[in-house]
Q: What sequence folds into this?
């Protein structure tokens, strides 16, 4: 047995003829940059997300950087985000010489805690970046309330939750990434909508912000060789857009496949008191970018070695809280401000999660886990 965390090969084989033909067509027509496939993908993704503007870019990290540049944030402005996320979220804040303020997460969903956000606000706070971690959204009702009260921008990091639905207590439902002022996502191959290289996109319903983003991704240029502002070069390759156009119509089925694998895991572990299965938010669907357990009083390293010996992959997202990263030492975070994140870093473990897990494989994985405890 050899069960990887993600299985991009089996997924590809099911759509191979279409993917191969579309990639070959781009090579044939040589529209490598900003080709027709990119323009069509923009339209199709904005219609899927029900958002006015989709601006593709080079990757999810660029998306976050460009979003903050477009909102005109200035050095010294404080941006609040979470301590328990992939580094890109907070790295881009620091890169722009903004001040990253990190807060702890909710112990059940592992997602940014709105109460802690409100407590971290100062007169210099300009934006909040909630991260829709592992496939479900932050409580966007609370985040948007806080943003309105203090006049802050909200940039949603939806790199792990594309296709997820947030159901507001006010009655509406919107896709993750389309609720705040700007949404950012990644098409990294292992993300829920992944291409075959790097890719990303930025979403907004605001015409003015969209225009700024479109200019920044292209060297601050509207008319060729006339540069209105400092920008970057960040584009989605046409070949990647061609791949994404084939995969987008499958996204809801892919999410359903992930959810059904998660249901299987939940059931299998329901009676094991050493394992806490991931909580599901009442306001959000779960697209299970990761299936992450919390282990209580378990030797995690030994369990992971046991799984490896059975050919089952496992991983820790994330082993080091951002406030403990060497890269952020200059910000002198208070080490006692993040008890939930600290505990999660010690106790989380993610199991294989992808679109290709059948029942036989899931049984083998769950049996292998449970066997460790007898
Ligand atoms: C993957 C990821 C990113 C960065 O995306 P890249 O395309 O790899 O640059 C940002 N934020 C989160 C939460 C991610 O998971």
A:
């Amino acid at each position: 047995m050899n069960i990887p965390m993600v299985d991009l090969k089996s997924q590809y084989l099911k759509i191979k003829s279409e993917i191969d033909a579309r990639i070959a067509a781009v090579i044939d027509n040589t529209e490598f940059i900003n080709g027709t496939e990119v323009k069509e993908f923009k339209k199709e993704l904005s219609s899927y997300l029900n958002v006015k503007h989709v601006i593709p870019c080079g990757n999810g990290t660029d998306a976050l950087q460009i979003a903050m540049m477009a909102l005109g944030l200035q050095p010294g402005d404080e941006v609040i985000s979470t301590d328990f996320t992939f580094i890109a979220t907070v790295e881009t804040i620091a890169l722009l010489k903004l001040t990253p303020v990190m807060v702890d997460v909710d112990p059940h969903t592992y997602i940014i805690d709105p109460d802690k956000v409100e407590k971290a606000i100062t007169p210099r706070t300009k934006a909040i970046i909630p991260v829709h971690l592992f496939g479900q959204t932050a409580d966007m009702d609370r985040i948007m309330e806080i943003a309105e009260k203090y006049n802050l921008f909200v940039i949603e990091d939806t790199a792990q939750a594309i296709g997820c639905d947030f159901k507001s207590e006010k009655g509406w439902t919107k896709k993750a990434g389309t609720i705040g002022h700007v949404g950012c996502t990644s098409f990294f191959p292992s993300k829920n909508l992944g291409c075959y290289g790097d890719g990303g996109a930025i979403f907004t319903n605001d015409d003015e912000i969209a225009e700024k983003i479109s200019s920044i991704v292209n060297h601050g240029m509207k008319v060729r060789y006339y540069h209105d502002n400092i920008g970057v070069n960040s584009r989605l390759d046409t070949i990647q857009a061609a791949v994404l156009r084939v995969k987008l119509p499958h996204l809801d089925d892919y999410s359903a496949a992930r959810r059904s694998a998660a249901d299987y895991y939940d059931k299998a572990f329901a009676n094991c008191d050493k394992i806490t299965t991931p909580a599901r938010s009442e306001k959000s669907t779960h697209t299970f970018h990761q299936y992450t357990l919390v282990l209580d009083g378990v030797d995690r390293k030994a369990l992971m070695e046991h799984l490896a010996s059975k050919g089952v992959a496992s991983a820790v997202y994330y082993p080091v809280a951002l406030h403990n990263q060497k890269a952020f030492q200059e910000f002198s975070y208070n080490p006692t401000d993040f008890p939930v994140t600290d505990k999660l870093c010690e106790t989380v473990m993610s199991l294989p999660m992808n679109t290709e897990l059948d029942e036989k494989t899931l049984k083998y994985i769950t049996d292998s886990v449970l066997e460790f405890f007898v």
